[in-house]
Amino acid sequence: MPSTELSDRVAELERRVRHLTLGATVASLVVTAISTSAWVTQSQTDVLRARAVIIVDERGAERIVMGAPIPEPAGRRIGQVTGMAINDLAGAERFGVGVFENGNLAMGFDAPRRSDYSSTHERINMESVQTVAAR
């Protein structure tokens, strides 16, 4: 084999080694970057984003309901509300606070429900009504 052919083959092998080294380095950097970003993303669990959260007791009864809006049957309130409701063991709301779509804020404390008492169960109800000034 002539020496020029041998030196050409050596030069080609050196070029391939350089390309392989560069490719391996880039691949290692990409894998490191992906691994690091996945690890950082998984460690940032201090924020929970949800439209609603319902906390149930050991029997499965809804005890605390929070939402934007609060998920509940239509007609239960005068309108959709973003806020929180706390229910008693029977599932009746005992405390609620929320902001309605029109900007009004309401907070209410309710008495326990009794079958022999037909009047309202509201005991304390505070509202902050948003008014529009005449121009």
Uncertain residue segments: none
Shape: rod-shaped
Would you tell me the overall average pLDDT?
80
Let me know the largest β-sheet: 6 strands, antiparallel
Give the helix tally: 1
What is the straight-line distance between the termini? Answer: 100 Å
Q: Helix proportion of residues, in percent?
A: 25-40%
Portion in beta strands: 25-35%
Numbering strands along the chain, what is their spatial order in the largest sheet? 1-2-3-4-5-6
Cα gyration radius (Å): 33 Å
Annotation, overall tally of beta strands: 6
What this model shows, in words?
By secondary structure, this protein is an alpha+beta fold. The protein contains one helix and six strands, in the order αββββββ. It has a six-stranded antiparallel β-sheet with strand order 1-2-3-4-5-6, with no helix packed on it. β3 (81-87) and β4 form a beta hairpin. The longest helix has 41 residues, at 3-43.
Topology of this structure?
Blueprint: H1 3-43, E1 52-56, E2 62-67, E3 81-87, E4 93-100, E5 105-110, E6 122-128
Antiparallel strand pairs: 1-2, 2-3, 3-4, 4-5, 5-6
